[in-house]
Amino acid sequence: MPKVPSSKRPPLAKNRFANLDLNLLKVFKVLFEEQNMRKAADRLFVSQPAVSQSLQKLRFQFDDQLFVKVKTGLAPTPKAEQLSEQLLPLLYGVESVVNAMDVFEPKELDEEITIALSPSFVFSLSGEIYRFFQQHAPKLKVKVIAWNEHTIHGLEKGDILVGINAELADSYPSLCHVKVSDIAGCILVRKNHPIVDSPITVENMSQYPLARLLVSDYSKLTSPIVRIFDKQGFNLEVGFSSEYPLVLLDVVRHSDMFMGASNCFPIQDYPELVMLKPDQSIPETQYSAYSYFHTRYQNSEMIHWLNNSISNIFKASQS
User: Which family does the record assign (predicted)?
Assistant: First the structure.
C-alpha cells in the first residue's frame, strides 16, 4: 500500500488534555455556577485578578471566550454551555468521591444552608424544622425561605440547597427530585363555623368565601382550590387574598371564610380554629411533596440525610 506523503496527511487532533492544568477545570466549574467574577473568587478563596488570569488560560486552552461580560456579571458562550454539559457531571462525581472520604456526622455540621419551602409548608413546618435540627444537628444554621419565582435559579446556582414543593409542571435537567411525603388537603374554619356540623363537600363549602393564599410564581392569577370547585361544577367566591398566612388566619378567625391547608398544619397552636377533612373523594386534595436539589448533589450523603430528615419532619407534623 503506497505511503501518503506527509504534506497531505490530515493534521492530528489537538491533544488539549496533555497540557491542561486540571485546577483550571475547578475554576471553570465555579465560574459557570456563579457567572460572576467576584462570587467565583470568594468561593475559590482567591483574588479576582487570579480568577481572571485562570479564565485567560481557559480561553487559550479551548480557543473560545467561554464567558463574556454582561450587565449582571458573566454569560457563558455556546462553547462553555457545551463544555458544562459534558464536564460538570464528571467534576460533580469527583467532588462526591473526595467528600465521601470523610465520615458523615450530622452533629458536626457547622455551616449555613438554605431550604426553600412552598409557602403553605413555610407556615406549617418551620417550627418543626427548627426543633428537629436543633436536636440532630445543633451546629447547623438553617435558613428557611418561601419558594418563589427565583427558587429554581437559586437551586441551580447553589444559593439554595434544597427546595420542597408539590411536583412541578416543568422539568429541569439540572435538578433531581425525590418524594419526601404524601400530603392530604384540609380546610380551616373558625371554631363555631356553620359548616362544622355539616358534611364537608364541595357543594356545602361553595356557600362560603375562600381566604386565598397568594403564591408569587403560580397562584396570583389562579387558585388550585378555585379550580377544584370549578371542576366539580361550583362557583367559588374569593373573599380575601394575601401572601401572608397569618393575615389569612386572622380573617378566618373572624369570618365565615375558609382557608385551604394541609394535614401538616399545626392546628394545636390555634385553639380558635378547626381543621376539617373532606367527606368526599377529591383526587386533587391528595398529592406528594418533593425535594428538589441540583444534580451535583445526587450522591451527597448530606443531601440523603437532609431529605430523610425532611421526610421525618413531615411525618411528625401530620395530623
Answer: Belongs to the LysR transcriptional regulatory family.
